[in-house]
Amino acid sequence: MAAAAPGAVRAERLLRGACVVMAATAALLLGFSEETETVLFVRKTAVAKDVQALWVLTVAAAAAAGYHFAQLIRCLYCSGGGAMAAAWTSFLLDKGCAYVVFASTAAALQACMVGLAGVDAVQWSKLCNIYTRFCEQAAAGMLCSLPPAHPPLPSPPPSPPRRLFRLYSPAAARRSSTS
User: Fold this and answer.
1) How many domains does the chain have?
2) What percent of the chain lies above the pLDDT cut of 70?
3) Residues 124/39, Cβ–Cβ less than 8 Å
């Protein structure tokens, strides 16, 4: 198998590094954000575990950071070429990781909108008026979790499908049959 172009490997390393930093930042912001307030003589601490969707996003972002870190190590220390099974596995795991983080971010955003706007029909108050700092940190964590899950459209994904499908090209078949 032919090795990947140096520019493509460098771009993948850069994107993987950015995904590690953003996902780890999201997990740390969400995991360590808390605020204690006194409401009607009761001290209450708001943490990410209070909103189940935020806790799921924290775990998903931490897992995504670990996955992208492992893939970054693979990019740094393994050659650009590889078996077709390894390329497909990497591609499918990238997609699965992105979909899990994106879905958990969307669920956390939906749950936090209730805290931001409240729901009059069931008499849920606007909790972000009470726990302002916690809500701001949760919003920052959700913003940090979106780029690893769904990179901006002009930028390529961390593991481009073009490299995967290049393994099926006639030139690759000729190279593997001659060796």
Assistant:
1) 1
2) 75
3) no
